[in-house]
Amino acid sequence: MKAGLAFAALLLASAAPLAAQGVPADLTTMPEVSNDYRPATTAWGDPDLRGTWPLNDIADLPVNRPERYGDRFWKTPEEIAAEQGRVETLQDAYAVEDEDSTIGLGHWIEYQAGALRTSMVVAPANGRLPAWTDEGRRRSAHMRSSWHIGQTYDWTDDFDTYDRCITRGFPAAMYPARYNNGIRIFQSPGHVGIVIEMLGLRLIPIGEGGHWPAAVTGWYGSSRGRWLDHNTLEVETTNLTTGATVFSNGTSGVPINNSTPVSERAKVVERFSIVGPNTLTYEMTYDDPVVWTAPFTLQVDWTRDDNYEMFEYACHEGNVQVRGYIASDRARREDEYRRGRMVEPIDPNAGPPPAMDPAAGGLRRRGN
């Protein structure tokens, strides 16, 4: 990891390394994905995508472009140099932990500096996600999650699918979180498998064929892949189960509260392009006219690291947080009711959450 953290330092000497990394002279332009590279093929003749592609080196790249970058897809050499102080701070933290034989936050957060881009969004050209529709805002207001500030907790339905160790959502799981960022691709004749270190396994059939019947859905949906050329796999996914979020809060620069809804009309088109010996360009176009006012596209580069070790994400092991949230929140509200600040008493045998105004953040209260 430390070698990866020093990546930004390699780019500071002059503008030449930036050009070598594919940064155009005009920082407001985004070059087309290259198809010049010809990757190796599998024994059955398909382009070979196999390998481990951890997302640590894009973990600090935001989905939405911060306003300070204006209309630029790329950072300037000066902006990259300014980030080097953060890199050095992290390196010092790692060194202390190694010397003391401790594992603290430094090694817990998998982050590598040196991102040249200003955002993952490449379309719209402003680098920001489009607005939600009125229906999208309504559905978001009814989503429940431990990320919501001031929300009440009475049942498992008050927690999102990430809280409950079901899924981070799709395409959320294809983007970095704070840790467990490994992605490993397997191939066999007619199929591509994608193992996601944090809550995910996808099996994608390749070739002719349709999607599932409309009544059948899944957290990762119904995917069908096809080879566009010698280096690009295109995958279309439909039939997504509603209820999870499009982007999870572990990813930088996403809408807050883990409450970006997925509708029954969502469609995702991904392109996996091998553009160099150890570089894969991942491009994702998301279209959901129920929730979003326009489609949008994200594009990032993955870096192969077959030495990366993937670990079991034992999310449920010893997990008492759901019960703890419910018990502590009920105790808090019972105390407030005794002091005359709650509208209704707490039912100790409550099942699913009571009627409430989700946009107001929970049960209406009297006073402050």
Write the layout of secondary structure elements.
Elements: H1 2-5, H2 15-20, E1 51-52, H3 77-82, H4 84-100, H5 105-108, E2 121-123, H6 134-141, E3 183-188, E4 191-196, E5 200-205, E6 222-227, E7 232-238, E8 267-276, E9 279-287, E10 296-303, H7 321-338
Antiparallel strand pairs: 1-3, 2-10, 3-4, 4-5, 6-7, 7-8, 8-9, 9-10
Low-confidence stretches: 1-16, 350-368
The major beta sheet can be summarized as: 6 strands, antiparallel
**Helix content estimate:** 10-25%
User: Which oligomeric form is depicted?
Assistant: single chain
Structural class assignment: alpha+beta
Q: Can you tell me the number of structural domains?
A: 1
Number of strands: 10
Tally of helical runs: 7
Instruction: Provide the gyration radius in Å.
Output: 22 Å
Q: What is the approximate shape?
A: globular
Strand content: 15-25%
The overall pLDDT average reads 84
